[in-house]
Fold this sequence. Notes:
Layout: H1 2-11, E1 19-24, E2 35-41, E3 48-56, H2 60-71, E4 76-84, H3 90-99, E5 105-109, H4 116-121, E6 126-129, H5 132-143
Parallel strand pairs: 3-4, 4-5, 5-6
Antiparallel strand pairs: 1-2
Amino acid sequence: xxxxxxxxxxxxxxxxxxxxxxxxxxxxxxxxxxxxxxxxxxxxxxxxxxxxxxxxxxxxxxxxxxxxxxxxxxxxxxxxxxxxxxxxxxxxxxxxxxxxxxxxxxxxxxxxxxxxxxxxxxxxxxxxxxxxxxxxxxxxxxxxxxxxxxxxxx
Length: 154
């Protein structure tokens, strides 16, 4: 997480850098991960927070992070994830968090299928971004025995 945050901070050198740190109970079950505490290291007061993570499952960690950021004075909260699973009551959590002014927008790829009804129902807070072009370029490069590092900016 911190390495990724530093990478994005490097892309936006005039931005601040803050790290969200979550502590989980040591005795949580696999599908019922309970977050004990979330801390933000860094100043988010009067700033827009952009949280980047690999996935959202139940949404608990992201919503807790948004609450913590707002308590510390953040004026906006956006999150970007590769995989939006939205299991359990995640949809309801994010809808309520949007309505309560905690989460402004969630961006995720279409690596996990969401029905048109789901996307329409949640269009106020959810934006889905297609990775079809990226996958097509990767498959073509692999088929042509070419490196894929340039596709991913490495």
